Amino acid sequence: MQILLKKLKKLTIQNGDGIYGDLTIALKDIDAILSTKDIAEKQRNIKLLIAPTSNLQDLSIDCGWGEEFLLLADKIEQELHSEL
Fold first, then answer.
1. How far separated are the first and last CA of the chain, in Å rounded?
2. Are 58 and 21 in contact (CB under 8 A)?
3. For residue 53, what is the DSSP state?
4. pLDDT per residue over 6-34, tens digit each?
């Protein structure tokens, strides 16, 4: 999961800020998840991070990497389900 989240962070940084999504908030959200030790809290926050119409999804669409976001979000979601 850490690898996928770091890849998501890298994509976010590479593609910059947008009008509809906030880069600073997205990076803070990802960093908070990466540093969280509590598994239940981490899973809950990951679900919020990749949810439809989330800040990060809006940012990805606005900056032209919406398809990449959806593919990566799908992989993250699959890994979440395999951990349960």
1. 13
2. yes
3. T
4. 999 999 999 988 898 999 999 999 999 99
**Could you read off the pLDDT of 47-61 as tens digits, one per residue?**
999 999 999 999 999
| Whole-model pTM over 0.85 | yes
Q: How many CB atoms lie within 10 A of CB 32?
A: 13
Helices (H), 16-84: 23-35, 39-50, 55-62, 66-83
Residue 5 in 3-state DSSP? helix
Residues 6+ positions from 83 with CB-CB distance below 8 Å: 1, 39, 43
C-alpha–C-alpha distance, residues 3 and 34, integer Å: 10
